């Protein structure tokens, strides 16, 4: 495809996406969104009883001896904060609201994209663009629950003030910097942290900072090198997997709120869609942990993007390991294409991604050897590594060249 055609196709796609986003916004009015963490929360009902409507509404869980009226009242008096209204946060929020949690805070800076909807189905149902607005769904689902949307990013500046107001925190985010921030903020405020993650066909769940158990830093004192971290937008995810893990995060939060022991406070649940659930015991709380140990060196929130060497979002390519001479912009590359300058393009994505789209392949690589045997093997090998590049073996190699094209060519 020529560059002009490519530009036109991209423009048409942009217009299509804008139209779909417009439709997504729907006709529903936006809820009152908080852009700051300072405002007081609505007071949760501290009466030790339920009214008749609540008894009818929650009757199927009320008759469980582990819960009973007293458990349901505890749920009603609890405040749960969910960070991230994506694949994990949406299902967790729905079940927490339906179960009768008195106040749920929903934090997300992001807006809905079409690629979110295979797993963030609640957002699609309600037709909002700002993710934290999923809270409005609860007004219909359970008018007794107060749901507070915060359209902002959780940062070192606001985390303490926000988390302090809630009893239990759910980590439903997708980046390492926010995981460390949440861990430290929960330790400093003394809140349990229900942490979930999902990628491809697998998910994980655990509860940090509860009942003498370890914190995230006890297990991972150092952040992973940024280039080794994968997320859903690079690695992919089957929508049901975050649905399962988000649901389990809600269950752990319900147990915590009722005073029942959470199942995963000192262990890690591993889910693999191709095999089963497995639980592994976690290493205990570390006495020398820098935040929850005996003499902590971290006593306030730090700069987590600097600590992790990566952004607190997976929206841009956080990695920056090459110098400016070793990189070019897409505009510069488009110019190279337009001028048909000599070059070769190596697309390092997986083969499955090549079926979705490709830049115009500018070159064919010809492979030659002495007699045409090794060159065939080389083509086979290169085909596995160089997606989208046309590779051709020169049949018969240099021997054939000497015989048919250039009689003076040295043969050995
Ligand atoms: N520091 C933060 N503060 C608030 N929200 C956050 C923060 N970090 C991550 N999030 C939110 O957590 C959510 C994680 O959702 P999910 O893992 O489903 O990924 P996504 O960003 O929605 O989708 P994709 O990765 O496919 O683009 C996102 O909506 C993201 O905006």
UniProtKB/TrEMBL annotation:
Gene Ontology terms describing biological process: Mo-molybdopterin cofactor biosynthetic process; protein urmylation; tRNA wobble position uridine thiolation
Major place of residence: cytoplasm
Protein's UniProt keywords contain Heme: no
InterPro entries: MOCS3/Uba4 (IPR028885), Rhodanese-like_dom (IPR001763), Rhodanese-like_dom_sf (IPR036873), ThiF/MoeB/HesA (IPR045886), ThiF_NAD_FAD-bd (IPR000594), Ubiquitin-activating_enz (IPR035985)
UniProt protein name: Adenylyltransferase and sulfurtransferase MOCS3 homolog
Pathway field: tRNA modification; 5-methoxycarbonylmethyl-2-thiouridine-tRNA biosynthesis
Keywords: ATP-binding, Cytoplasm, Membrane, Metal-binding, Molybdenum cofactor biosynthesis, Multifunctional enzyme, Nucleotide-binding, Transferase, Transmembrane, Transmembrane helix, tRNA processing, Zinc
Family from the record: In the N-terminal section; belongs to the HesA/MoeB/ThiF family. UBA4 subfamily.
Cofactor descriptive note: Binds 1 zinc ion per subunit.
Keyword Nucleus: no
Top-level EC class: transferase
Ligand binding (ATP): 87, 108, 115-119, 174-175
Binding site for Zn(2+): 215, 218, 289, 292
